[in-house]
Design goal:
- 16% of the residues lie in helices and 23% in strands.
- By secondary structure, it is α+β, with helices and mostly antiparallel strands.
- It has three domains: 23-172, Glucose Permease (Domain IIA) (Distorted Sandwich); 185-261, TTHA1013/TTHA0281-like; 265-322.
- The strands form four sheets. Strands 1, 3, 4, 5, 6, 8 and 9 form a seven-stranded antiparallel sheet that branches.
- It is globular, with a radius of gyration of 21 Å.
């Protein structure tokens, strides 16, 4: 009976995809509200056909690694067709990211340079982990007239492009969640927030500061700005104690512009808003994902999952965004 059930389930899964469709197990490559359709194979100028899928979004939207792997190619300096990135996984499949940002944030000047195109630590030969921020969405190259988007391609080991649409559909359902992978990917607050290195720094990145006159502790990000811990619970989701906190003068602190608010480290806590009975897991970038059942909560965090739940005041809701619900465990 069990064998028949398994066979039936497998048959249903296979029928869910078009005949011949390639479905790779990937992380959706863009973080945020996006739109896309199956435009693989659409005609392009010069008799070409479209060899990827365009994922429409906003400039500087984080682009994440679809797989565990390494950086096979990166366009530095920027090519005539814009900034691009190619990743490769352990099976030899390749993932292309094109039209990566080339603008100074808030402009369309084409002068953003590498710091506004690629995340820190991205270079040819670098290792990447699934879900790691690798670049930022833009409109470089011939995308200036079409708006910010990621042109995403998948190539098989023979370097033949295959339609990525069904892989994106499978990834975008967002039903799974791995707390350990989330914690690993958010190794620092800068990594969690997708902050990027800048030339002008107001404080030393990845440090903690305070003043003798206040008990508040601030995090200095890769962008040289300070980020606020709204409460002690958030702080202790990232740090065990205060031994690494540096004391600065009030004047020095005032010279550091505030960049934003720190949220709970991904994968460590479950949160509940005071006026919402739902329990949410915290994913990268302050994204809340509804844990759809107690069975899912137990599968993710064990029988004592309720001990991880913390109440978040409604006023702090602005610090988070809502993502896809979690319907199955890894």
């Amino acid at each position: 009976m069990r064998i028949v059930t398994v066979i039936s389930a497998l048959a249903s899964l296979l029928l869910a995809w078009p005949a011949g469709a390639v479905v790779r197990d990937i992380e959706f490559p863009a973080v945020g509200d996006v739109s896309y359709q199956d435009d693989f194979g659409d005609p392009r100028s010069g008799g070409r056909t479209h060899e990827g899928v365009d994922i429409m979004g906003e400039k500087m939207m984080p682009l994440v690694s679809a797989v565990d792997g390494w950086v096979r190619y990166v366009t530095v300096p920027e090519a005539s067709w814009g900034y691009g990135l190619e990743l490769e996984d352990a099976d030899g499949w390749r993932y292309w990211y094109l039209h990566i940002n080339n603008d100074t944030p808030g402009t369309d000047d084409g002068l953003g340079g590498e710091a506004n195109a690629f995340a820190p630590g991205i270079y040819r030969g670098a290792r990447v982990t699934r879900g790691q921020t690798v670049a930022y969405m833009g409109d470089s190259g011939n995308a200036e007239r079409t708006g910010a988007h990621l042109h995403f391609e998948i190539h098989d080991p023979s370097d033949t492009p295959v339609n990525p649409y069904e892989s994106l559909r499978a990834a975008s359902r967002g039903g799974t969640f791995d707390p350990e992978a989330e914690r690993f990917a958010a190794s620092t607050i800068s990594a969690d927030l997708g902050l990027q290195s800048v030339g002008t720094r107001y404080c030393l990145s990845d440090t903690l500061v305070t003043t003798p006159e206040t008990k508040a502790v601030y995090y200095c990000g890769e962008d040289g700005r300070r980020y606020v811990f709204p409460n002690a619970d958030v702080y202790f989701s990232w740090y065990d104690d205060f031994t690494s906190v540096m004391t600065v003068s009030v004047a020095e602190l005032a010279a550091m512009p505030i960049g934003g608010v720190v949220t709970y480290r991904p994968g460590t806590k479950l949160v509940k808003l005071t006026t919402d009975p739902k329990v949410y897991a915290v994913a990268r970038g302050g994204v809340l994902r509804w844990v759809s059942s107690e069975d899912v909560a137990v599968g993710l965090y064990g029988a004592d999952w309720a001990d991880r739940v913390v109440d978040v005041p409604d006023a702090d809701f602005i610090n988070f965004t809502i993502g896809d619900p979690i319907t199955v465990t890894p």
